[in-house]
Design goal:
14 strands; alpha/beta; Rossmann fold; seven-stranded mixed β-sheet; single chain
């Protein structure tokens, strides 16, 4: 492990420190600040020549600032002759722009993948991508982790009976099916029609939810409209307690207020995106993916398989 070094940008320092604690190493010393005109200033303050480097940075809000920090750090490490540089991106921003669904729009997820490669990333480690096909956007190795085990360990302590796993939309069926298998629970889907990018109209429920406890599963919660509308429809169809686990808590706009006034008992998110003080509420619980990333980093560094960390999502 003497060749392993971990650095972090400013987006998720607490997670980076936790990962280092699990690995029993110190967080690498680096200066990430701003020049007087707002340009990002980076200086790596340790010798990285011939070392195996991991840079931890979520590209969450402010997205462009955090993305530029990551790109500049990758460039600095490449030019300092690091042996290998892995971009550890707990939350991969721009992932929702993954196809041309309208004329004259970009595929920004592919653009970001190209930028990471050109900046100097040798490989990428990320968590619960918005769409699995994003892995094919990269011309370098990508390791894709899943938060399912973290959420399972949390909810198994609650010991919910008559449990059903629900996908808030048709696109999340594969994820919901994996959760249903892991929890040994039944599966249901909320069929909905989207009126606009920020609002939805729920149509009907596919599956039996009456008198059952529900866990709504998804990869991202942004404005919260989809989740809240799905929970409302489930309650109207006779569901008992309603919980939700979502990997990435973007929580933009008035999402927190929507959650607080909804029929969701509480929402569980990971610390892939740090939860700011103004967004903290009793209805939002945070579980850590620090141990998961630490184990993946250790296995990558030792050239060991990491498939054992996500076998449960398969089939």
């Amino acid at each position: 492990m003497d060749k392993l070094l971990i650095f972090s940008g400013n987006s998720n320092l607490e997670l980076a420190k936790e990962i280092c604690e699990h690995l029993g190493i110190e967080l690498g010393k680096t200066l990430v600040s701003r020049f007087s005109d707002g340009e990002i200033r980076v200086k790596i303050e340790e010798n990285v020549r011939g070392k195996d480097i991991f840079v931890i940075q979520s590209t969450c809000a402010p997205v462009n600032e955090n993305l530029m920090e990551l790109l500049i750090m990758l460039d600095a490490l490449k030019r300092a002759s690091a042996w290998r540089v892995t971009a550890v991106i707990p939350y991969f921003g721009y992932a929702r722009q993954d196809r041309k669904d309208q004329p004259r729009v970009p595929i920004t997820a592919k653009l970001v993948a190209n930028l990471l490669t050109e900046a100097g990333a040798s490989r990428v480690l990320t968590l619960d991508l918005h769409a699995g096909q994003l892995q094919g956007f990269f011309d370098i190795p990508l390791d894709h982790l899943y938060a399912i085990e973290v959420f399972y360990n949390y909810f198994k302590e609650i010991k919910l009976e008559k449990l059903v796993i629900v996908s808030p939309d048709v696109g999340g069926i594969k994820m919901a099916r994996a959760y249903a298998k892991k929890f040994s629970a039944s599966l249901a889907i909320v069929d909905k029609r989207r009126d606009s990018p920020d609002s939805t109209e729920v149509m009907h429920i596919l599956g039996e939810v009456k008198n059952k406890n529900v866990i709504l599963v998804d990869d991202i919660i942004s404005t919260g409209s989809s989740l809240v509308e799905a929970a409302k429809a489930l309650k109207e169809n006779g569901a008992g307690k309603i919980f939700s686990c979502v990997t990435h808590g973007v929580l933009s706009s008035d999402a927190v207020k929507k959650i607080e006034s909804s029929c969701i008992d509480y929402l569980v998110i990971t610390n892939s995106i740090p939860l700011s003080e103004e967004k903290k509420t009793d209805k939002i619980k945070v579980v850590s993916v620090g141990k998961l990333f630490a184990e993946a980093i250790k296995r990558i560094h030792k050239e060991e398989s990491i498939s054992v960390l996500f076998d449960s999502i398969r089939s």
